[in-house]
Amino acid sequence: MSDAPAPPPQARPQPRNPLHGVTLEAIVKALAEHYGWQRLGEMVPVRCFTTDPSVSSSLKFLRKTPWAREKVESLYLFMLREQRRAGQPQAPR
């Protein structure tokens, strides 16, 4: 028996998960570019989008607030579906 720690588990590929490999920063930037901060604040009514919005303040809040992050991720997926239907270029990954 060895006292060496077990190697970390390998990350499983997630080819069907559209959020796999997309950073929260990329999501926030894509949403702000697509909808604008004002519309984004209407769609997800949190202060980081409505009062002096910035990517850094949004990231700080979203990383600490799971329910808000889920709403933002859902909105991002909705935006991707809209873009795909309209034949628009996809948001960068």
In summary, what is this structure?
The chain is an all-alpha fold and 93 residues long. The protein contains 5 helices and no strands. It has helices at residues 24-35, 37-43, 47-50, 55-64, 66-86.
Structure description:
- The relative contact order is 0.15.
- The protein is flat, with a radius of gyration of 17 Å.
- It contains five helices and no strands.
- The protein has helices spanning 24-35, 37-43, 47-50, 55-64, 66-86.
- Helix content is 58%, strand content 0%.
- α1 (24-35) crosses α2 and α1 crosses α4.
- It is mainly alpha-helical and 93 residues long.
Brief descriptors of the model:
93 residues, mainly alpha, 58% helix
- Helicity range: 55-70%
- State the distance separating the first and last CA atoms: 44 Å
- Indicate the overall shape: flat
Largest sheet: none
Question: Mean pLDDT score, rounded?
Answer: 86
Low-confidence stretches: none
- Content of β-strand: under 5%
Number of strands: 0
- Structure class: mainly alpha
Question: Count of helical segments?
Answer: 5
Mind telling me the C-alpha Rg? 17 Å
Q: What are the secondary-structure elements, in order, as H or E?
A: HHHHH
Write the layout of secondary structure elements.
Layout lengths: L23 H12 L1 H7 L3 H4 L4 H10 L1 H21 L7
